[in-house]
Amino acid sequence: xxxxxxxxxxxxxxxxxxxxxxxxxxxxxxxxxxxxxxxxxxxxxxxxxxxxxxxxxxxxxxxxxxxxxxxxxxxxxxxxxxxxxxxxxxxxxxxxxxxxxxxxxxxxxxxx
Amino acid sequence: xxxxxxxxxxxxxxxxxxxxxxxxxxxxxxxxxxxxxxxxxxxxxxxxxxxxxxxxxxxxxxxxxxxxxxxxxxxxxxxxxxxxxxxxxxxxxxxxxxxxxxxxxxxxxxxxxxx
Lengths: 112, 115
Hints:
By secondary structure, chain A is an all-beta fold. Chain A is 0% helix and 53% strand. In chain B, strands 2, 4, 5, 6, 9, 10 and 11 form a seven-stranded mixed β-sheet that branches. In chain B, strands 1-3-8-7 form a four-stranded antiparallel β-sheet, with no helix packed on it.
C-alpha cells in the first residue's frame, strides 16, 4: 500500500524567510502527488499537484514542489513566506483506486 | 453556496447517542469520501463511495456506517458515539473521469465532540 511521510510536524519561521516542508512517499507504481493547505477553521484546499511532465510544479501564491522519483520525495518550498501562509499543509498520494492517502500534516507558523 | 456542504458545523453529543453527519454536493461528482482528522494523525479515510450503489470501507470504518442517498448526498452515522470519535470530519468529492486534475473538493468540516 502507498503511504506518505511528513517528517516535520511543526515548522516555525520568520516572515520573509525561505521554508521547505518535507514529504516522502512510498509507492511501487506511478504516482500522483498533491499538496493541500488548511487555513485555521477551514477545510482543505488544493495547493498544487504533480500528475506527469515537468517535475517542478508551482502554485499561484508562490509555493513550488519538486517531484524526485529517485528520492521518492515531493518537498514543498517557498523562497519568502508571509504571515498569511500560516496554516497546516498536507501531502497526499493518489492510489490507483482514486483514494487519496494523506500524510500527518505540517503546521507552518510564520512569525513577524 | 459552497460546492460541498456539511451539516452540522459543530456538534456536541453524549456517549452512546446516535448521530448523523450529512454531506451534500453540487459538483455533480460521482465519488464521495468521509475522512476524519485528528491532531498529529492527519486525515484518515472512513468510507468512500464511487457511485450510488457502491460503498466501500476505508482504513478506520469500525463504529461508523454510511448511506449514499443520491449522487449528491452521502451521510455518515455513528450508531453509538464514543469519546474517541471526537474529531474533525470532512466530506470530499472527486470525479476523475470528467475532471482530469484528480483533485478532491472538500467541505468545511464538522467538529464533533463526544462527551
